[in-house]
């Protein structure tokens, strides 16, 4: 019998394969660019290891790309045909639920796995990921606090658990706990991107913008070999600059860091959901401030049009709409809404999120672009309380709140503007008057 680095029993053929599994898990937890190659090495070391196929399926699902569902299902079928222990079979059940469009069931299975095996990092981290993108930070906090007693600093992966503790508590407003855990994780490993990211969120929510810029600048030299989470950290850097009204600095980061337009590589820039959200939300925020962004919307719009009908990532839908409307692709914008309406007719948990949150938000973005601000407010107002179900952090969700408050001002709806300001004040200790997206509204209604 073989075990992973956390002491969980593995169905693998050799100690070499067990070490390859640990290497792949470490890459996944630490957001390393070569994680796919690490998984390939594990599969090569032991093609009959069931968790190798499970990981292949889960990694395909992590992309929230409908085109990869077949790959995930194929990996699951291979896993199910292999001998496996009960924990590994539970992982197969979770992947099956995720593929079938019931990620809420997958969350429950991962919770069951970690209840029995608190050091199962694959189950823990997949749960953390999916709970976040389902707008369930309460479940993120509950799970991390349940597993913490089973961990110690001398166990491999402890820093990654601390990093998740940081982000989970940040998203539920426990900033002191969050920052302490994140800084602990970075002290253990300065290259821990998820921990750096969690602390950046704390600094964003508390309005500590200069500290945020220093935090990212100090850690950036450690990020060589990281994956696209680096783009999101640079997006955070741009968010701090946005609040400082350094719009030229924001565009420089857009072009040289998180969208990398100045490189020939930008022509093949991925349409991965988080990269799209980074880019579209930043251009949209700049547009609200009257900053000209040139032709930057074009490549995003091309990717948006190619992905119409792929509704796996609910939060990405209004971002696709931002790109389509910014480039005048009204016919494509109509098709996006039609496809979203069709997907929202289902009777699944995800369909309800599309129906009750993604669709109103995406319609509101389209109305806003057309100057139909009264209709934008009417579309989005009933959904405001449920926007968190789209997934995304408070910092990311803020762009949809800005759609609402901007339309409220332009439609002459001071009551709705005040509503937006009250929501902003409840989410962050920073007064709306000190936040660039809400300052104009605060002055207008005397908030």
UniProtKB/TrEMBL annotation:
It comes from the Bacteria. CDD domains: StaR_like. Keywords: Repeat, TPR repeat. InterPro entries: TTC38 (IPR033891). PANTHER family: TETRATRICOPEPTIDE REPEAT PROTEIN 38. This is Tetratricopeptide repeat protein.
